[in-house]
From TrEMBL:
<dbReference type="Pfam" id="PF04542">
    <property type="entry name" value="Sigma70_r2"/>
</dbReference>
<feature type="domain" description="RNA polymerase sigma factor 70 region 4 type 2">
    <location>
        <begin position="112"/>
        <end position="156"/>
    </location>
</feature>
<dbReference type="InterPro" id="IPR013325">
    <property type="entry name" value="RNA_pol_sigma_r2"/>
</dbReference>
<dbReference type="InterPro" id="IPR013324">
    <property type="entry name" value="RNA_pol_sigma_r3/r4-like"/>
</dbReference>
<dbReference type="InterPro" id="IPR036388">
    <property type="entry name" value="WH-like_DNA-bd_sf"/>
</dbReference>
<dbReference type="InterPro" id="IPR013249">
    <property type="entry name" value="RNA_pol_sigma70_r4_t2"/>
</dbReference>
<dbReference type="GO" id="GO:0003677">
    <property type="term" value="F:DNA binding"/>
</dbReference>
<dbReference type="InterPro" id="IPR007627">
    <property type="entry name" value="RNA_pol_sigma70_r2"/>
</dbReference>
<protein>
    <submittedName>
        <fullName>RNA polymerase subunit sigma</fullName>
    </submittedName>
</protein>
<dbReference type="Pfam" id="PF08281">
    <property type="entry name" value="Sigma70_r4_2"/>
</dbReference>
<comment type="similarity">
    <text>Belongs to the sigma-70 factor family. ECF subfamily.</text>
</comment>
<dbReference type="InterPro" id="IPR039425">
    <property type="entry name" value="RNA_pol_sigma-70-like"/>
</dbReference>
<feature type="domain" description="RNA polymerase sigma-70 region 2">
    <location>
        <begin position="6"/>
        <end position="74"/>
    </location>
</feature>
<keyword id="KW-0238">DNA-binding</keyword>
<keyword id="KW-0731">Sigma factor</keyword>
<dbReference type="GO" id="GO:0016987">
    <property type="term" value="F:sigma factor activity"/>
</dbReference>
<keyword id="KW-0805">Transcription regulation</keyword>
Length: 160
């Protein structure tokens, strides 16, 4: 694998993946850089024995980088910061609740899905990734990603 062209070839793909995980442009950019830094450091550990694609290997590094980021910050501090940055000092709580009620219900239902279904749903809807790209991330087929997404949608509809 040519170290000089890795970012050009996979940078946008990894950024989209991290954006779906973080839902934060700045953090996704930062984690993308860290992902490629880690990948270059450990590129000799990538063994293409016909089973793993390079993009899948990069996605696993990206996911680990994201999980490390989550572990470094306490959830309480993240919530405090996001509330401070997202909301003005005064707002109508009732209006805010009504506007976000549908979004909150969707995420409550999505949170109850199994890990793969939930992640595929987020990658497809929030990350705007194709089923082929999603299948690649999981090391599975495009059809597997499509069927799993469909099943996740059916599961979400049962709660209605």
């Amino acid at each position: 694998m040519d170290k000089d062209n890795i970012y050009q070839e996979y940078g946008e793909f990894i950024f989209k993946y991290l954006l779906t995980l973080t839902n934060n442009l700045d953090l996704a950019e930062e984690l993308t850089q860290e992902t490629f830094y880690q990948a270059i450091k450990s590129i000799n550990n990538f063994h293409n024995n016909g089973k793993a694609k390079f993009s899948t290997w990069l996605c696993s590094i990206a996911k680990n980088v994201w999980l490390q980021e989550l572990n470094q910050k306490s959830k309480k501090q993240q919530l405090k910061d996001s509330l401070k940055n997202e909301y003005p000092t005064s707002y109508d709580l009732e209006d805010d609740y009504i506007k976000n009620e549908d979004k909150v219900m969707f995420f409550k239902k999505a949170h109850q899905l199994s890990g793969n279904k939930r992640e595929i749903l987020y990658l497809r809807l929030l990350g705007d990734l194709s089923f082929k790209e999603i299948g690649s991330i999981f090391g599975r087929s495009e059809n597997w990603a499509r069927v799993t997404f469909y099943r996740a949608k059916l599961e979400l509809g049962k709660g209605e």
